[in-house]
From TrEMBL:
Record's keyword terms, sorted: GTP-binding, Kinase, Mitochondrion, Nucleotide-binding, Transferase
GO cellular component, one term: mitochondrial matrix
Family as reported in the entry's similarity comment: Belongs to the adenylate kinase family. AK3 subfamily.
Name assigned to this protein: GTP:AMP phosphotransferase, mitochondrial
Documented EC number(s): 2.7.4.10
Organism from which the protein derives: Lepraria neglecta
Region (LID): 150-187
Gene Ontology MF annotations: AMP kinase activity; ATP binding; GTP binding; nucleoside triphosphate adenylate kinase activity
Annotated positions binding AMP: 41, 46, 67-69, 114-117, 121, 184, 195
CDD domains, sorted: ADK
Catalytic reactions of this protein: a ribonucleoside 5'-triphosphate + AMP = a ribonucleoside 5'-diphosphate + ADP
Quaternary organization: Monomer.
Function recorded in the entry: Involved in maintaining the homeostasis of cellular nucleotides by catalyzing the interconversion of nucleoside phosphates. Has GTP:AMP phosphotransferase and ITP:AMP phosphotransferase activities.
Region (NMPbind) residue spans: 40-69
């Protein structure tokens, strides 16, 4: 696959129902556009907890008590990562009255994963760094359910297989280690439908927020292979 270069920074969020293929599209986008990197709020949180940073210890106390990690704590983690990469000015603060001007260099391009999930979180993020493209990935429910039924994972590495279109070389075994594949706990239909309901409740106002900002773009397809070329074309049109 030929790679393409951006002419300006792309600050991206992918939004879609559980199982729609956000991870697949993010990987393909980063291969196609090498200046893109992934910023995962979940990874930042896990690293902070593992490394026992002050923020990580504070977050762990919330997690141990069963409460959600507060939005401002996640934003501080994201801000720390953006500063470390010099993508925002070092003086940028969560308490600035207006967002600092982020770097517009193509190398300051990222896909933000795991945050925001609500319109309130989106407003807080916007005060920190303006997102310039939000992609709403749409795939019919019956297609996603079929995909989930066929999905198997190698838990230690996170490698994902699908008996419909991405089979392991040996049935039930990981290609690299030969270890057994398992099902995700949340891959049952009932669990997925509960997650979908929650996603729909929070995503509607989130998408409306970004539509008002003029940065929302919707793409629909029955498979990741159908969606990817449309995504590539839109990214090239906007950023190359």
């Amino acid at each position: 696959m030929a790679t393409k270069e951006f002419k300006r920074a792309a600050r991206i969020i992918l939004v879609g129902a559980p199982g729609v293929g956000k991870g697949t599209q993010a990987e393909r986008l980063m291969k196609r556009f090498p200046q893109l990197s992934a910023v995962s709020s979940g990874d930042l949180l896990r690293n902070a907890v593992r490394n026992k940073t002050p923020l990580g210890q504070e977050a762990q106390s919330h997690m141990k008590s069963g409460s959600l990690v507060p939005d401002d704590m996640i934003l501080r983690l994201i801000l720390g990562e953006l500063k470390a990469k010099s993508w925002v000015p070092p003086t940028t603060s969560l308490f600035d009255a207006a967002p600092s001007l982020p770097s517009n260099a193509p190398s300051a391009s990222f896909i933000l994963d795991g945050f925001p999930r609500t319109s309130v979180q989106a407003q807080k993020l916007n005060a920190l760094i303006p997102i310039n493209l939000v992609v709403s990935l749409i795939t019919p429910v019956n297609i996603i359910l079929g995909r989930i039924a066929n999905r198997w994972v190698h838990a230690p590495s996170g490698r994902v297989y699908n008996t419909g279109f991405n089979k392991p070389n040996v049935e039930g075994k990981d290609d690299v280690t030969g270890e057994p594949l398992t099902k995700r706990e949340d891959d049952g239909e009932e669990t997925w439908r509960a997650r979908l309901k929650k996603f729909e409740e929070t995503s509607e106002p989130l998408l409306e927020h970004y539509e008002r900002k003029g940065v929302l773009w919707r793409v629909e397809g029955k498979s990741s292979d159908e969606i990817s070329p449309k995504l590539f074309g839109e990214f090239e049109r906007r950023f190359c």
